[in-house]
What does this fold into?
Amino acid sequence: MEILHGFMNYCSTVFVLIIMLCVVLLMCAHAIVSFRNKQISKRKRQLYDALEQYAAGGNAKTLFSAFQSRKGVEVLTKVIGECDEVTVKRIREIAKAAAYDDFLKKQLHNKEIAYCTMVLKLVGELRLQGFSGFVLEFLYKYRKNIDLQYVGFLALSLLGDAEALIPVCMDGSYTQALSFRSLKEIFKHFSGDRARICSVLLKAPDNYVRRVCLIMIGEYKIQQLATDTSALLDDKDMNIVLDSVRALGQLKYAPIVPRIQQLISHEKWEVRSAAVRALANIDLEQYARDVAKGLYDKEWWVRYNAAATLTEYSRLQELAREVIASGDKFAIEILRYAVQRKALKGEALPT
Amino acid sequence: MNAFQMTMFILIAIAWAFMMVEYAARILQVCAAARWQRQFSQTDRHADHKRFVKSENVMPVSVLVPAYNNAQSVLEIVRCLLNMQFQEFEIIVINDGSDDNTLLLMKLEFELTALAQPYKRSLKTSEIKAIYRSPLYANLIVVDKPHTNRADALNVGINIANYPVYVTVNADSMMERDALVKIIMPFVNDHRVIAMSGIVRITNGWGIENGYVNRVGFSKGVLGNLVALEYMRTFLSGGAQHDPLGANLNMPGAFCAFQKSVVIQAGGYSQDCLGEDMDLIVRLRRLALEQGRSHVVAFLPNPIGLTQAPHSFSELSEKRRHWHLRFLDAFKKHKDILLKKKYGRLGMVYAPAYWLFDLLGPVVETAGYALLFVAWLTGAVSGLFALSYITVLVLFGVIYSLGALLLEEGAIQRGLSAREMLQMIVYSFLDNLGYRQLNAVICTATLFRFKSLKAKKR
It folds into this structure.
């Protein structure tokens, strides 16, 4: 017992010392965090003051000198992440006038990759040209770093640099590790010639890249790529087929209608659902009968998509009577639901 | 020393050694969590939440709120959820046959209208009485059903949900306005993510308006602060430590997100288990391992769910009993994974560790104190020895609590004043002088009354 007791007393002494150390650590951590927060607040105030003074005719270089440091980069990145688009535009103007790109180029020689990633992010946000070479260098040098891939691709996209984006996307040896949604978000911000980049990247080795191009074609109505898009309806990847159908619908590309009509009876419900939407997009009035076939589909989502689009149909009442006469319980209930939802939202229904 | 005294002493020594090992493991947890947190904060610096919060490229989300007799809080919670910063989401409140005015209040507040909404019955559930929609908020759905249980209510919500990911929120909890985008981003970035949990914070004393925290405060009551400290320990050291090891088996029902299709594949929430949240996580993991599918069940320290601490010790003990009962039931259901090679680390390391420390720990702790008292009375140990025994355990516990505070300071940085920080340090001591022991006693009592309590719950 005495041995154990002695050991306990020894432990107590050690633990008291550890507790004292923890308390000191905690207070130090607290003090450091408070100090850092105050520093950041101070820099933020400096930044807003600089913006005001620059608008009043101040010298950009002098005003922006406080941000030519690592802390300055951190604060700028933080502020850009928090403030509205108008303020960001003003920051871009003063950064360009202050030749901030020279400072950032020097920062890219830093050995800490996390810091370099932050600098690249800032380059994209500030739309500073002349960095594409650096971005590509980093993308290839740290090809397994997902954060860097995201920031690098986003920077190139924000800069609208198709000449830098195309080679890296077409390079079969470069493994692009970003998720589809991240890639979609990156290309959404592409500010260059979308038709050109899509026409090339539709042949990219990565399916995600091809799908993103199809989405851009649909969203930005890139009519000249309709033929290339229709060629992808026979692709092996179902997602490529789906995105092609959607894009062609958004393009209202009438020559492809017979093919899409066939897809209404495709074995995959996702394709049937997309086909219904695409036909409605192309010309609901003309193809309402085909769209209405979706109301009798065995899959809930196809029925729902068909019903939701048919609420825009000018002869909805006539169609509704036909659906009721068919006696199909599921078709009736989904159409009724779609109509009720539209009415509840206060949207006008066809008379 | 006679044979009885010797036996008593040996048992006390074993209990003490067990507790020392448990605390050492907990402190290692804190160290591992600190390391993980450092890595996380570096990656999180590059997270593009601002861009995604307004983007259609982030996954749309269904927020499921099962409500049973929550008339007092439900309106505030729904209003808070409607104000979330997120591009596309729907809120599905499932009124689980409340006896109070939960449904009536919502009908009046949101001008609900019954709608014949068809839905896909992916999971078997009880019948739905009505589905309501609001003309004021297109993304608000209220489902009324007869009273069954939370698991059934959540399954109903999953059937109604339109989106690929859902988040569960209790009808007495909230989220910070940016919590949705933060908890969903891992699903956007990695298709292997099947479940994700955030941290739940105690907000007694905080200033909150429509889900926006405008003041981090300090509870006036002792209990609120003790519970707040306990939550910090549980989430920041437990969740963060388990994450890199892929050992998260338990997630807070008050705030976690799931991939809907995987949950449907696993059969949804089980109604035969009181701990439906933990049961689901274990089943999802088992299913993925059995199918040889790579999966991620993870924890993040920055999406923040908000909840209130119990206001009295009786409320606390009732809640604690309830939680431990759920925990025990889930463990009992999945005892077959213990030490099974086919479940890899889950079966060979993590599940045994949970059994050892989370189930057996409170029993050993309670027994240790009881034996010590008897041994002291019978003269088996001296008063000084008993004091040393308790002192060592209390001090070890204090180190653990202080470790959690350090993690909090590193991860959340919510700007507590120096005075408030000192108060929290004092609470780290108070926490180990009665509160922790009380919890151990409640958990032990729950274990021994498991069958009767479970029958009563049913």
